[in-house]
Design a protein that fits this description.
The chain is built from 17 helices and 16 strands. The protein is of the alpha/beta class and 419 residues long. Bound molecules: adenine (ADE).
Length: 419
């Protein structure tokens, strides 16, 4: 048995069936895995991955292993781990996993340390906790690392700040900035899975409700459009004038947070910033307001302030805590303010993670090939990889597109032709 710290290896059979189910929706990754099996582009490369331990991630881990990598996985969030998936990775696929759903902070960080103990050459992160641990406590390991990948907006923001401060110790590829990642995973993935989490946790009817979406980045757009599609009256709050304008022209009401606070039935934060919902908003909210976060960290809702305002806090359903406030008002917080789509549901559907994780797999292969020639900065996914993922996804969906004619190519390359 490979090394592990998982909840119950007895869940491995159930987990394997779930992993295989997800794999059926991940044809691009499957194709990459089949090629990797033959070519072994990551032969002998140790990879430490810190990702949400889901069935989709399991299929990425299988793909890296098929490429010859020595891969180990820990969780990037204490509440997103699927214990059956973790068990299957260990029991059925012989991949070391350190992840238990609901683990405390000490356990969470000890799991990150466990994957770093394997002396990785490549790191794979979602949110930046592994990279931060390396730079703060394992600087001696930095020279051994040829590069890393980062999955999400929040992690990329942290990496860019490290780069700007001259402390980034190795090159990292921003998977998030690939078109085939953020235009799909962030928008359609978060859009669907956030609604899924809220519905599973509360079984609330969306039609006729006022849903306040805080933040109109790619994730916010997805959430707003799905809420609108389910019959909600959608209000958007923003701090960026261009995004606010887009939201207004996309047909949403745009309001300052305090105005939105008085109107919302359901609030969903997707900003990547801290304390987006705080005391000044809680005190204006209606009785029965539901608060959920779909941003990476559990900082967007100021729970400490909410707790200090509450007369009582009780658990009323799995994933739902009731805060009793002044004026006979009750406010409900889902999944302790952690990522509702992963804590209360299963994260983004496999068909969209197919593209994100195809970028991850191909970027690892690219990193292994370019070994030594990169600087310590944040890189985009190479354009040919991004386009290849789009091309493969279309092919697996049976969607065909046109090609430029020779005449059109010449026209695009010329500047002389006008009216
Ligand atoms: N992030 C969001 N959804 C995810 C999923 N299903 N698997 C891994 N990471 C995710």
């Amino acid at each position: 048995m490979v090394e592990n710290d998982v909840k119950d290896l007895g869940l491995a059979d159930d987990g394997r069936l779930r992993v295989e189910w997800a794999d059926r929706q991940m044809p691009v990754l499957t194709r990459i895995r089949e090629r990797f099996e033959k070519e072994k582009p990551l032969d002998g490369v140790t990879i430490a991955a810190c990702l949400h331990v889901t069935t989709e991630t399991a299929n990425l881990m299988r793909t890296l292993k098929a490429a010859g990598a020595d891969v180990a996985l820990c969780a990037s969030n204490p509440l997103s781990t699927q214990d059956a998936t973790a068990a299957a990775l260990v029991g059925a696929y012989e991949i070391p996993v350190y992840a238990i759903h609901g683990v405390d902070d000490a356990g969470y960080y000890s799991h990150i340390k466990a994957v770093l103990d394997r002396k990785p050459k490549i790191t794979m992160d979602d949110g930046g906790d592994l990279v931060t641990m390396l730079h703060q406590h394992r600087q001696d390991q930095l020279p051994e690392i040829i590069g890393g990948t980062e999955e999400t907006t929040t992690g990329v923001i942290r990496l860019r700040s490290m780069e700007a401060n001259g402390v980034l110790g190795y090159p990292v590829i921003s998977i998030n900035d690939a078109d085939t990642k953020h235009l799909f995973d962030n928008r359609y993935g978060t859009g669907q899975s956030a609604m899924d989490g809220i519905i599973r946790a509360t079984n609330v009817l969306l039609a006729g409700k006022t849903v306040v979406v805080c933040g109109y980045g790619m994730c916010g757009r997805g959430v707003a459009s799905r809420a609108k599609g389910m019959g909600a009256d959608v209000v958007v709050t923003e701090i960026d004038p261009t995004r606010a304008l887009e939201a207004a022209m996309d047909g949403y009401r745009v309001l300052p947070g305090r105005d939105a606070a008085t109107q919302g039935d359901i609030f969903i934060t997707v900003t990547g910033n801290k304390h987006v919902l705080r005391a000044e908003h809680f005190e204006l909210m209606k009785d029965g307001a539901i608060l959920a976060n779909a941003g990476h960290f559990d900082i967007e809702i100021n729970l400490a302030e909410l707790r200090s305002m509450a007369n009582d806090v009780t658990s009323v359903r799995p994933e739902v805590e009731e805060y009793s406030l002044a004026g006979d008002r009750r406010v409900y917080v889902l999944s302790e303010g952690r990522l509702v789509n992963l804590a209360a549901a299963e994260g983004h559907p496999a068909a969209v993670m197919d593209m994100s994780f195809a970028n991850q797999a191909l970027s690892c292969e690219w990193l292994a090939r370019t070994h030594g020639s990169l600087e310590n900065r944040v890189y985009d996914v190479p354009e040919d990889i991004d386009k290849e993922v789009a091309r493969l996804k279309l092919e697996t969906m049976g969607v065909r597109i046109d090609e430029l004619t020779n005449e059109q190519e010449t026209y695009l390359a010329a500047w002389e032709e006008g009216t």
